[in-house]
């Protein structure tokens, strides 16, 4: 049976594990919040399909199960697993996507590595994804492609299946033209994206940048703009914009540009936060802390997440505030999702060195200033830590959105707690009542953490109430409704003025 909704996402939507000699499919344990959300869309269609890759030593092995059928709490869907060899994975994912695209998307030109990129392999893998999606899609189906490692899929898919609706969502930032155009394949990428019906971003700034890039490279015209939703305007912050493109015209086709911040599953976090085991865990953590304040930092180990800069600020805090010794603890959860890559090993080792230095310099037998956690904490435990942390310290140098800060606000059912947030996380345009900081400035970083530590309860509660309202309003349901409306809404697009 063909599918009404095909989700094209590079990872499989479960973990495949062997139990008693049998293969079973389990919910993902690795730290990535988006997979369950995407699977949630399958509940809305008769039949869904997911296309991902799976490592295969021998792609021609007849025992390789390419398509599997799943029926679980999310609905009925098939999963096509494209067999990729270790060399293809290394070239398509680790090299082209992570060493060339990722640094440019996050504006780290100096980390961009062009030399090892094998562009024909990137094309070949993207073509395989497009072919698999084309084979699964029912006539007029919606195909939803995710993230930069599948940039060429829309263009190939449009050739194979002119009838389908194609939507593409970027989870990362989209940089300005001066940065994006460093990529030598820029024109091919943008042409592919313009084969979509809808191109989605988290926040207006990324959409503005995309349209500017497209206009710098191709005859893209007749841009329709609209005012930004006032909830996403915050005067003076780095990523805020007042006008946003809504659609563009390219080769006679009008393409929608959508801006919708990915949110979190509010109800799920409320339930988890209210559950007896979480409350017990939170209370145990609180009594273990005694009169120490807990600062919590959570993120993947990645140079974009600013872990090193944050630890440097913590070191300065302990140098300049001896009265905080024994009174504050930092729990730094930094989980490596991209193993065997030099850039990530390097950052992990820098973080370990910094944490060791801080503990060695300031710590004692009774008090360890930093607890560095490098393996994934179960999500329910994370909620208990969110509930106990006096401060959640999220200071990426660049981040498409950042869901951790939203999870923190959602978990604070008690209405207390302070969020310190980088102005270079997409979430900063929504969460203006956080203590906003600039991670490129020592002074700004240091002042923000001092302000958070000293904040009176009344102010903490006022700010938290505003954040919780926003996080609830723009939760994952709002994002899902917004994205779904593009698949079902055939209404004529507005003309350019
Ligand atoms: C990309 C973009 C964008 C983290 N450590 C643990 C753990 N996590 C979970 C968090 C959260 C998720 O991982 C991280 O989400 P982020 O949004 O912060 O970051 P990325 O992984 O970089 O995601 C990002 C996102 O896509 C969505 O569009 O916001 O900007 O880079 O859910 O809770 N979860 C558990 N243990 C951990 O130790 N269980």
From TrEMBL:
GO molecular function annotations of the record: glucosylglycerol-phosphate synthase activity
Signal sequence residues: none
InterPro entries for this protein: Gluc_glyc_Psyn (IPR012764), Glyco_trans_20 (IPR001830)
Keyword field: Glycosyltransferase, Transferase
CDD domains from the UniProt entry: GT20_TPS
Top-level division of the source organism's lineage: Bacteria
Keyword Glycosyltransferase found: yes
Principal EC category: transferase
Recorded family membership: Belongs to the glycosyltransferase 20 family.
NCBIfam families: gluc_glyc_Psyn
Name used for this protein in its record: Glucosylglycerol-phosphate synthase
Record gene name: ggpS
């Amino acid at each position: 049976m063909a599918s009404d909704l095909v989700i094209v996402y590079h990872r499989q939507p479960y973990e495949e594990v062997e139990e008693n000699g049998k293969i079973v499919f389990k919910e993902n344990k690795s730290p990535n919040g988006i997979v369950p959300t995407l699977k949630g869309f399958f509940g809305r269609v008769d039949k869904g399909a997911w296309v991902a890759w799976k490592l295969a030593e021998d792609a021609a092995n007849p025992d390789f199960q390419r398509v599997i059928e799943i029926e679980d709490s999310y609905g009925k869907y098939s999963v096509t697993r494209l067999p990729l060899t270790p060399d293809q994975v290394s070239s398509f994912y680790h090299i082209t996507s992570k060493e060339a695209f990722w640094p440019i998307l996050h504006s780290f030109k100096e980390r961009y590595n062009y030399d090892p990129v094998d562009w024909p392999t990137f094309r070949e893998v993207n073509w395989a994804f497009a072919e698999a999606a084309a084979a699964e899609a029912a006539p007029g189906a919606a195909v939803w492609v995710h993230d930069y490692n599948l940039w060429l899929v829309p263009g190939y898919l449009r050739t194979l299946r002119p009838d389908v609706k194609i939507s593409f969502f970027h989870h990362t930032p989209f940089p300005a033209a001066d940065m994006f155009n460093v990529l030598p394949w820029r024109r091919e990428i943008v042409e592919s994206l313009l084969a979509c019906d809808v191109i989605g971003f988290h926040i207006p700034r990324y959409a503005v940048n995309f349209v500017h890039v497209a206009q710098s490279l191709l005859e893209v015209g007749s841009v329709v703009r609209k005012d930004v939703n006032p909830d996403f305007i915050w005067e003076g912050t780095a990523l805020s914009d007042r006008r946003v493109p809504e659609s563009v015209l390219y080769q006679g086709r009008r393409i929608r540009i959508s801006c919708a911040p990915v949110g979190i599953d509010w109800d799920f976090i409320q339930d988890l936060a209210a559950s007896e085991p979480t409350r017990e865990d939170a209370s145990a953590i609180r009594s273990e802390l005694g009169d120490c304040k807990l600062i919590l930092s959570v993120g993947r180990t990645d140079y974009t997440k600013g872990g090193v800069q944050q630890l440097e600020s913590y070191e300065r805090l302990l140098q300049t505030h001896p009265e905080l010794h024994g009174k504050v603890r930092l729990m730094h959860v930094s989980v490596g999702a991209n193993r065997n890559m030099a850039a990530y090993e390097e950052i992990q080792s820098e973080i370990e060195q910094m944490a060791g230095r801080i503990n060695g310099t300031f710590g004692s037998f009774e008090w360890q200033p930093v607890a560095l956690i490098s393996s994934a904490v179960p999500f329910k435990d994370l909620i208990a830590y969110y509930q106990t942390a006096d401060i959640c310290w999220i200071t990426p140098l660049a981040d498409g959105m950042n869901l951790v800060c939203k999870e923190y606000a959602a978990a604070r059912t008690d209405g207390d707690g302070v969020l310190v947030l980088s102005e270079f996380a997409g979430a900063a345009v929504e969460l203006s009542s956080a203590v906003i900081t600039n991670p490129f400035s020592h002074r700004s970083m240091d002042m923000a953490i001092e302000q958070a530590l000293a904040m009176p309860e009344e102010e903490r509660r006022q700010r938290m109430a505003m954040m919780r309202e926003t996080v609830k309003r723009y939760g994952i349901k709002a994002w899902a409704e917004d994205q779904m409306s593009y698949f079902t809404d055939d209404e004529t697009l507005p003309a350019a003025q």
